[in-house]
């Protein structure tokens, strides 16, 4: 399995997922279809599937156009998310195949939107593990590895999505989020846990990556559990630091702080 970043808009990422045996590909959130198809052509792959994480325009806005450009293309989205151009609706636990070696599991991860879907992708014999989290987990913040904003759900739903569903994936799983927000997210994370050396170390690395014009995505589930305050709310010391007595309460408190934080 091969995964290719396709930078879109100002800070979005689409991703090509390639089954290298069959040369078939899926694309996650192709908001700029022509750019995505150009990358697909460069890599000699046959695009078969669109995997839409949620209905917001900067993720689903290219679906109608890419369907016009690739007749017969299947467009997947959450059952209750009203995704533009959707041909096939997914529920939690639904499974898809790409080519001969790639399996895709639909994970319902609501809160940013009610029907938000994350896609857990594995290759044959589970050699490669990846999850495409859209705006539910926005690298080191919630939603985009914690880019998350609670647009259509509750703190309880976000806790379930982040700290139960996604946190239960194998720690080496690579996390591909929908935006390039890592530096800002880690800067905020240090305001919550100023003594967390792993956050400081990751921030230094991320700043260097961006200075070189390189992506900070993917992270891993293990890194998120070490540096993302929204995924660390089960820790009593973190709850105490933010003045809360439960994980959900702490998550809501941190989200409120993030909403007010201007960096």
From TrEMBL:
PANTHER family assigned: BETA LACTAMASE DOMAIN, TENZING NORGAY, ISOFORM C
Molecular function GO labels: hydroxyacylglutathione hydrolase activity; metal ion binding
Keywords: Hydrolase, Metal-binding, Zinc
Similarity-based family: Belongs to the metallo-beta-lactamase superfamily. Glyoxalase II family.
Biological process annotations from GO: methylglyoxal catabolic process to D-lactate via S-lactoyl-glutathione
Organism this protein belongs to: Tetracentron sinense (Spur-leaf)
SMART domains in alphabetical order: Lactamase_B (SM00849)
Pfam families: HAGH_C (PF16123), Lactamase_B (PF00753)
Catalytic activity: an S-(2-hydroxyacyl)glutathione + H2O = a 2-hydroxy carboxylate + glutathione + H(+)
Residue span, Metallo-beta-lactamase domain: 11-179
UniProt protein name: hydroxyacylglutathione hydrolase
UniProt-listed InterPro entries: Clx_II_MBL, HAGH_C, Hydroxyacylglutathione_Hdrlase, Metallo-B-lactamas, RibonucZ/Hydroxyglut_hydro
EC class (word): hydrolase
Pathway connected to this protein: Secondary metabolite metabolism; methylglyoxal degradation; (R)-lactate from methylglyoxal: step 2/2
Domain of life the protein comes from: Eukaryota
EC number: 3.1.2.6
Co-factor requirement: Fe(3+); Zn(2+); Fe(2+)
């Amino acid at each position: 399995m091969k995964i290719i970043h396709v930078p879109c808009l100002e800070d979005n990422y689409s991703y090509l997922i390639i089954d290298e045996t069959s040369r078939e590909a899926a694309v996650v959130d192709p908001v700029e279809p022509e750019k995505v198809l150009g990358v697909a052509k460069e890599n000699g792959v046959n695009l078969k599937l669109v995997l839409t994480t949620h209905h917001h325009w900067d993720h689903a806005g290219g679906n109608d156009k890419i369907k016009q450009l690739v007749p017969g293309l299947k467009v997947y989205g959450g059952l209750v998310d009203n995704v533009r151009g959707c041909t096939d609706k997914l529920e939690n636990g639904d499974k898809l195949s790409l080519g001969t070696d790639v399996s895709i599991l639909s994970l319902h991860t609501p809160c940013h939107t009610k029907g938000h879907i994350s896609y857990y992708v594995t290759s044959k014999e589970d050699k490669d593990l990846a999850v495409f989290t859209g705006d539910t987990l926005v690298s080191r913040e919630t939603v985009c590895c914690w880019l998350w904003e609670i647009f259509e759900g509750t703190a309880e739903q976000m806790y379930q999505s982040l700290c139960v569903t996604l946190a239960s994936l194998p720690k080496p799983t690579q996390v591909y989020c929908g935006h390039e927000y890592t530096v800002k997210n880690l800067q905020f994370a240090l305001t919550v846990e100023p003594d967390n050396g792993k956050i400081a170390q990751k921030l230094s690395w991320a700043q260097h990556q961006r200075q070189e014009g390189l992506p900070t995505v993917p992270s891993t589930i293990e890194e998120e559990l070490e540096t993302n305050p929204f995924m660390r709310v089960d820790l009593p010391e973190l709850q105490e630091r933010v003045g809360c007595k439960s994980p959900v309460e702490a998550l809501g408190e941190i989200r409120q702080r993030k909403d007010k934080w201007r960096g």
